[in-house]
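Aim 2 progress update. The chain analyzed this quarter is reproduced below.
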Amino acid sequence: MQNIVEFHIIGRLCRIDAAKKVTHISVATNYNCRKGETWKSDPQRHRITLFGGLRARFEKVTIGDLVRITGRIGPVKYKVEGITQYSVDLIADGFATLVKAKPKTVEDDMQD
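Predicted structure tokens:
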């Protein structure tokens, strides 16, 4: 039996940082939680790493697009000032654009 650790995120693309061999993206999600008698939104950002051909497919997306990202979770170990730190990386295996962001108009800019 194979053991796996994977993730599925549906959210709005809010940042793209492309380097030579890797691209990091940030996807914003929000969860609604109840605080007493009222519901509050709890927005969160998730940093996801892309490699290879998946990076080329990301050239067609824009900030604000609603995307679905799937992938695996990988452990990361690094040193900061001689102290070993541990973290996890969200590594994308696939993605789909669910809804393209509405292009901004001059009227939209004037309302901001």
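The radius of gyration is 17 Å. The mean pLDDT is 86. These observations will guide the mutagenesis experiments scheduled for the next reporting period.
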